[in-house]
Amino acid sequence: MSKISYVNGNYCEHKDSFVHIEDRGYQFADGVYEVFGVINKKIVDYDGHINRLFRSLKELRMNSPINKSSYYFHIKRLVKINRIDDGLIYLQITRGVAERDFKFPKNARSSLVMIAKGISQDTYDDTFKKGIKVKTVKDLRWKRVDIKTINLLAPVLAKQEATDHYCQEAWLIDDDGFVTEGSSSTAWILKKNVLYTTPLSNSILNGITRQSLIKGLNKNKVRLTEKKFNIIDIKEADEAFITSATQYVMPVVKVDHIKIGNGKIGKYASIFRKAYMEAVKLS
Ligand code: PDD
Question: N or C: lower Cβ tally within 10 Å for the chain?
C-alpha cells in the first residue's frame, strides 16, 4: 500500500510530496512542528498538542493556514487512509514560500505538511523491556526552546553523538552542569522515592507527555519535584526515564558510564507507564 501525505490542502503519494526550494522552512528553519502519538487508531492528547502548536505559531508571529478545527479532520483522515493502528503524525508549518529575505514576507501563505508513520506496539514494548542508554551532551540550543520550532540542528548533533556512543538518547547539560532535557524528550530521575524533572522555563519544551504523566502521578500519590538534577544526582538515582509523544514513558538504564540502579529497568517503569496511559486522552 502506498503512503499518503498531506501537503498544503492536497493528499499526495508520499514519494511525490514536495515543497518549494524557497520555502522558509528549508532556508531559515522558520517554522514550527508537532508530533502526535497514535494508539489504536486514536490520537494521544490531541488538545494538548494542538494548543501547543498554536502557542508556537503565536510566539513566531506566524499564521495558521487552516482553521484550528480543521487539523483534527486531516489528522484523523491521514491515520485512516494510511491504515495506522499505532504510530505518529508529524505536522509542520512554515512561514511559506518567498524569495530569500530575512524579513517576514508580506503575502506568503504558511505551508502545512503532515506525514503519517506506523510503529508497531511490539517495537515500543521490546525497547521498554530493555530500557535505553543515554549520553550526556552540552546543550548548544538557542534560548527559546519552549517554542517547538524546526530549528533542530543542535538536537540533531546531540542525538548523533549519542548514537555514535551506542546510546538511544542524549541528555543536554546546561552551563551549570544540570540536565535541561533530552534531545527530543523530557528527562526524569527517581531518587529515594522522589521523582525529579526540570522545572518549566524557556530552556525546555513543556512536554505534553510530561503533563499527562504528572496528572497520572497525582492520582497515584507519587512524590514529584520539579527541580533540576545533575550528574551527582544521576549517580544516586534508583531509576531514570524519558517521556515523549513517540516514546511515551521509556526507562533509562545507563547514563554515560553510570548504571542506573542495577542496570536493568526498575519497578517504577511499569507503574509510571500505567499511570501515564490512564491519564492520557485518546480521541
Ligand atoms: N519531541 N523536549 C524536546 C526537546 C522534544 O523535542 C520533545 C518531543 C519533548 C517531549 O515533548 P512531548 O511529550 O510533547 O512529545 C521534550 C518530539 C517527539 C520530536 O521532536 O520528535
Answer: N
Is the Cβ atom of 24 under 6 angstroms away from ligand 1?
Answer: no
The per-residue pLDDT for range 126-176, each reduced to its tens digit, is: 999 999 999 999 999 999 999 999 999 999 999 999 999 999 999 999 999
**Architecture label for domain 4-119:** 2-Layer Sandwich (3.30)
**Can you tell me which atom of ligand 1 is nearest the CA of 52?**
14
Task: Determine whether the shortest distance from the Cβ of 245 to ligand 1 is under 6 A.
Answer: yes
Domain ranges of the chain: 4-119, 125-279
Q: Whose CA is nearest to atom 6 of ligand 1?
A: 184
Q: What is the largest CA-CA distance in the chain?
A: 58
Please work out whether the CB of residue 203 comes within 6 Å of at least one atom of ligand 1.
Answer: no
Distance 106 CA to ligand 1 centre (A): 31
Closest CA to 43 of 72, 63, 65, 20: 72
With cell 546543550, the residue in question is 139
pLDDT band per the 50, 70, 90 thresholds, residue 221: confident
Instruction: Kindly report which listed range (173-182, 193-202, 212-221, 241-250) carries the lowest average pLDDT score.
Output: 212-221
Q: How much distance in Å is there from the Cα of 99 to the middle of ligand 1?
A: 31
Within 10 A of 33 (CB to CB), how many other CB atoms are there?
17
5: Cβ below 6 Å to ligand 1? no
- Domain 125-279, CATH number (from 3.20.10.10, 3.40.50.720, 3.10.490.10, 3.40.50.2300): 3.20.10.10
Judge contact between 196 and 213, C-beta under 8 A: no
Q: Helices 70-81 and 46-59 sit at what angle, rounded to 10 degrees?
A: 120
